[in-house]
Write a structure and sequence with these properties.
The structure holds two protein chains of two kinds. By secondary structure, chain A is an alpha+beta fold. Chain A contains two helices and six strands. The chains are: A alpha+beta, B mainly alpha.
């Protein structure tokens, strides 16, 4: 069963104060993520993972009456944003939660675990079996 | 460079020969994980060379020859590594001379394929690993093809297979038949893995479909091989029959935009009568031999459905009796659920709904969407649209299948519209 683990983080000036981290703290964080991804690959569980660009330039797009794009944003007031995601293929839901908890504990300032919220959602599948 | 690919005859031949060659190499060297890698490389070499050079006169000998060469390369480098590490090499020397002509006949043992299956479906492996390893070692699929079938990256699948082989190596399973005492249980594990591969063919049917191997067909092919090796085993025949009788309805199961069409709404003229005839013959023959198992019963139920040319011709009393037997044999809430449906079809929705109440307290159901879906159908049958709609919606919320969610949502919407029409008619 496949799950998407979504990493929601506060804005740069929010709780994690990421702009104030030292280079070492930042490096430790990146190294942690790198190890985490490698662990997922080695376990044969990684389906995909992407990091998303900072939300500063994010736009909300809708089709106008003529079908042409109408853009809105960026939205400086939004408190949290999706920083990235993993899709994992695991044997049971508990394993997905376990992995999410691991990602959640990525180190922040002073190497202290961030314990950030990771949203875990199951990926839908195709047809069910005929009864 | 234009890459040529194998035609289906060559591909079929390759997949058929894969476990035979692997069996011989694994027996000869006593190292299943390494032999499996060597044969995989031989298969890849064949896929590249055969389209250009043509299928060799003795394809099995060709594959064996290439695999053995790879195996010797591997052993030589292993030996060198051990010498470097100053470890005494106690295993068979890799310098053993070997140069068979490519057309020499090799000693294929019919049981090798069974031994391989027992190994790949060893209970020490997780289902996902057992499935991947079975498809590669016994099915002769490449890692890329298996990864494609499961919509995961090739590196991930390669890792999964390599870990599975490590577990086998670590557990010291010998390359031999399980003992008589273990045999029934181990065969059960093999059949379960084959069944999972078959089911996966349905559930993973979303996503890019280009060059994806058909897992249901692979499962049927492998189960045919097992049935050929164990023709007197009723459960093997039952599983094969169940697969054929289910697969026979494939063309009728989905509409033009991939939407789910339930059994009672399918265009039965689209059912594959050839598969149905074969499935019915298999299960009848198995049941006549007296031993009754769960796959045989499930196949018998599928056969009763498939025999009805129109949905109203369905012999529900017989289906009810078969689910009754199945229920007594296995304490499985999903069987109880299907039993309740059959009871509703024979004795009316009230009886079915009553049977469902017993499942409300079953923790194994754990709020499974199927309980809501079945209850919704029975409430609809009973004319209680209000509650039927609520349960259809609850089921739609929880299913993880997109076509099924769409079906359940549409069902709730249809009932709601009907209810409004009836309300409007009353008010006039």
């Amino acid at each position: 069963m496949k799950y998407m683990l979504m990493m929601h983080v506060p804005r740069g000036t929010g709780d994690y104060q990421i702009n104030n981290w030292s280079p070492e703290e930042f490096r430790a964080h990146i190294a942690f993520m790198h190890r985490f991804n490698k662990e997922l690959t080695d376990a044969g569980e990684l389906v995909g993972a992407e990091g998303l660009a900072a939300p500063g330039e994010a736009k909300l797009v809708r089709a106008g009456k003529d079908g042409a794009p109408v853009t809105d944003g960026p939205f400086p007031e939004a408190k949290e944003f999706l920083a990235g995601y993993w899709i994992v293929d695991v044997d049971r839901p508990e394993r997905a939660y376990e992995l999410a908890a691991k990602a959640s504990a990525a180190p922040g300032r002073g190497g202290v675990p961030l314990n950030m919220p990771i949203e875990v959602r199951q990926v839908m599948s195709g047809l069910p079996q005929d009864v | 460079m234009t890459a040529q690919s194998l035609d289906s005859t060559a591909l079929h031949l390759l997949r058929e020969l894969a476990p035979q060659v692997l069996g011989v190499v694994a027996r000869r060297y006593g190292d299943f994980p390494a032999a499996e890698d060597a044969v995989q490389e031989a298969l890849i070499a064949a896929a590249m060379q055969w389209p250009v050079a043509g299928i060799p006169t003795n394809p099995r000998g060709w594959l064996f020859h290439v695999a053995v060469r790879r195996m010797n390369d591997y052993l030589r480098s292993e030996l060198a590594r051990r010498r470097r590490e100053d470890v005494v090499a106690t295993e068979r020397s890799a310098d053993e001379p070997f140069a068979p002509p490519p057309d020499s006949e090799i000693g294929v043992d019919r049981d090798d394929t069974l031994v391989l299956l027992f190994m790949c479906c060893h209970p020490a492996l997780t289902p996902a690993s057992a499935i991947a390893l079975t498809l590669r070692a016994v099915g002769g699929l490449t890692t890329a093809e298996i990864a494609n079938a499961f919509l995961v990256p090739e590196a991930t699948m390669a890792q999964r297979i390599s870990r599975a082989k490590q577990s086998i190596k670590a557990s010291n399973v010998p390359f031999s038949m399980p003992t008589d005492r273990e045999r029934a249980e181990r065969l059960g594990a093999v059949l379960h893995v084959l069944y999972l591969i078959f089911s996966e063919g349905y559930t993973s049917s979303i996503g890019p479909s280009l060059h994806r191997p058909d897992l249901s067909n692979e499962a049927i092919r492998l189960t045919r091989v097992v049935h050929g090796l164990l023709p007197d085993d009723g459960e093997v025949a039952g599983l094969l029959a169940l697969m054929l009788l289910t697969d026979a309805r494939r063309a009728a199961r989905t509409g033009a935009s991939g939407e789910l069409i339930p059994l009672d709404e399918q265009d039965r003229t689209l059912w594959d009568q050839r598969l149905i005839a074969e499935g019915i013959a298999l299960v009848s023959d198995a049941l006549s031999k007296g031993s009754v198992g769960s796959y045989q019963l499930q196949a018998a139920i599928a056969a009763v459905h498939d025999e009805a040319a129109r949905v109203e011709d369905t012999d529900w009393p017989q289906i009810l009796a078969l689910y009754g037997l199945l229920k007594r044999m296995s304490d499985n809430p999903m069987v109880a659920l299907n039993h309740a449906i059959a009871a509703a079809m024979v004795h009316g929705p009230v009886v079915g709904l009553e049977l469902l109440t017993a499942l409300d307290g079953d923790r194994r159901m754990g709020g499974h969407y199927r309980l809501d879906a079945v209850r919704a159908h029975l409430l609809e049958m009973a004319g209680d649209y209000e509650r039927a709609i609520a349960h259809f919606r609850a089921a739609a919320e929880r299913t993880t299948s997109i076509p099924e969610r769409n079906y359940l949502t549409a069902k709730a919407a249809r009932l709601a519209a009907e209810q409004r029409r009836e309300g409007a008619a009353r008010d006039r």
